[in-house]
Specification:
Radius of gyration: 23 Å
Shape: globular
Strand content: 5-15%
Strand order of the largest sheet: 1-2
Number of strands: 2
Helix content: 55-70%
Order of helices and strands: HHHEHEHHHHHH
Oligomer: single chain
Length: 202
């Protein structure tokens, strides 16, 4: 079935996407698919299962490395809706990590500037005047993005959306629906931590 193949391949490659715009388009489109699937109970989507977590077989005993890699476990299939949900949590985790990293970098830079200012005073200002501002150099774009300068990306409203806010809004809404138990029973410990840190779950 073509739909099953496309959705399965899409989910398997989501975490491999590189680029802000591509990631936004893909994860928000997956949100729409999940929303549509839940609202319509679309049988074609409901019937799709994909590879989920790798399950270790605890009854195999001590094995050699070759046997371990071949026989120690198997992929557990999960509904594609659950996989999309997990991908959303993964992307939300990336957003939270990105925000934390930027805050730490900003705090560090502020501290360094304060230290330099205390040490050098006006001498630093005099030295800086001998350098041309970065804006004077050809090709320098202070607001540049890895893919945000592409005309199609600039014209697309999605490029101006904040993924973290969209994911939070969707996940909070989903958590209040009766069907949410089908998703929450599949949480890993790490996923639960992400949802709690983001305020989706108490």
């Amino acid at each position: 079935m073509a739909l099953a193949f496309i959705v399965t391949e899409w989910c398997s490659r989501q975490v491999l996407l590189f680029g802000t715009y591509e990631t936004k388009v893909s994860i928000l489109a997956l949100c729409k698919i999940l929303e549509h699937g839940i609202q319509t109970n679309n049988p074609r989507l409901v019937s799709i299962n994909v590879k989920g977590e790798w399950v270790i077989n605890a009854n195999e005993g001590i094995q050699t490395t070759s046997k371990t890699s071949a026989n120690s476990g198997q992929w557990r299939e999960i509904p594609v809706f659950v996989e999309i949900y997990k991908l959303m949590i993964h992307e939300l985790s990336n957003c939270l990590d990105h925000a934390t990293t930027h805050k730490e970098e900003d705090d560090y830079e502020d501290e360094e500037w304060e230290k330099e200012g205390d040490k050098e005073g006006d001498a630093q200002d005099n030295n800086m005047q001998s350098f041309a501002p970065a804006l004077h150099y050809a090709g320098f774009d202070p607001y540049g993005d890895d893919d945000g300068d592409h005309p199609d990306a600039i014209a697309d409203p999605i490029s101006h959306m904040e993924v973290q806010s969209c994911l939070l809004q969707f996940l909070v809404g989903l958590s209040r629906q009766p069907i949410y138990s089908k998703f929450s029973e599949r949480h890993t410990h790490q996923e639960l931590q992400v949802l709690q840190s983001a305020g989706v779950l108490a």
